[in-house]
């Protein structure tokens, strides 16, 4: 699920259902929960930052999950 990227960055890409078939927000929730279960955020991973790139329009509540669940300490809107 994770790969080493440039400069020792840990990279994870998660997809969602085909457009019009399912809820992409649910895919975000499932992805973050899986990463937690796999220990991706554990202290031994020595992470300095975790970035989420999610849609800004809230079609369903799933896109706001990292914010609602306290998974983000700071939020930047670009």
TrEMBL record:
SUPFAM superfamilies: P-loop containing nucleoside triphosphate hydrolases. PROSITE patterns: NIFH_FRXC_1, NIFH_FRXC_2, NIFH_FRXC_3. Belongs to the NifH/BchL/ChlL family. Keywords: 4Fe-4S, ATP-binding, Iron, Iron-sulfur, Metal-binding, Nucleotide-binding, Oxidoreductase. Pfam families: Fer4_NifH. This is Dinitrogenase reductase. The keyword ATP-binding applies. InterPro entries: NifH/chlL_CS, NifH/frxC, P-loop_NTPase. It comes from uncultured marine bacterium.
């Amino acid at each position: 699920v994770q790969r080493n990227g440039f400069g020792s960055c840990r990279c994870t890409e998660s997809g969602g259902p085909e457009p019009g078939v399912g809820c992409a927000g649910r895919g975000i929730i499932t992805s973050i929960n899986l990463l937690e279960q796999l220990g991706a955020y554990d202290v031994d991973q020595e992470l300095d930052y975790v970035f989420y790139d999610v849609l800004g329009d809230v079609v369903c509540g799933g896109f706001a999950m990292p914010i609602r669940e306290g998974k983000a300490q700071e939020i930047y809107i670009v």
